[in-house]
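Milestone M4 deliverable, item 7.
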Amino acid sequence: MAKIRTFDHCGFVVEDIPRAHQFYGKLLGAKPLHIQNLNTQRLYEKKFPIMSFVEMGGHRFELCLAQEKLASTEGAKAMPRIGFSVTAKMMDELLKQLDENGIPYEGPVTYPEVVPLARTIRVQDSDGNALEFSVRK
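Output delivered:
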């Protein structure tokens, strides 16, 4: 069986691209690379996506504008989600950064000895996309 060692890109559906830029910039140091299809009136009628490409951690991510209001994630377990493996030092820095920027998160969750993870936090962006950061044992 093949193993995934890296990926080319990943997309998040968001309601507000500038707000997503700000969130991912604060959280992960995202750098906008390219924005396309900004004429929202014309593109909504033709149903073309409006996208921004950003670089985070050496990978390209797409922030795709939602054409309809996203469902509330209140009380829900948002799926799918994307997980990032970080070192213990990186986790400590991330927690500090989240607190300094007033970004809410769940956790850290700790695990029984048999689970290969030491601790995990979950962050939801302003559009309900779930990001998990875990330290491996």
